[in-house]
């Protein structure tokens, strides 16, 4: 499948690993913000919903 997009297997694996790392930090930061500030939870939820609709 990586070849369909012009990537090598190593590039595809690196991209998947980077997505996992950003997901880990983003989820942690989002949880911390929503615990601290209730408005942040609304903003993060809204941004996530908009991104999921694309």
Overview of this structure, please?
The protein has about 55 residues and is an all-alpha fold. Helices cover about 80% and strands about 0% of the residues. It has two helices and no strands. Helix 1 (about 10-35) packs antiparallel against helix 2. The radius of gyration is 15 Å and the shape is elongated. The two termini are about 20 Å apart. The mean pLDDT is about 80.
Rg from Cα? 15 Å
What structural class should be given to the helix and strand makeup? mainly alpha
Model regions low in confidence, pLDDT < 50 over at least 5 residues = none
**What is the overall number of helices?**
2
In sequence order, what are the helices and strands, one letter per element?
HH
In round numbers, the mean pLDDT is 79
**Proportion in helices:** over 70%
Which shape, going by the Cα principal axes?
elongated
In total, the number of domains comes to 1
Number of strands: 0
First CA to last CA: what distance?
22 Å
User: Largest beta sheet, briefly?
Assistant: none
Report strand %. Answer: under 5%
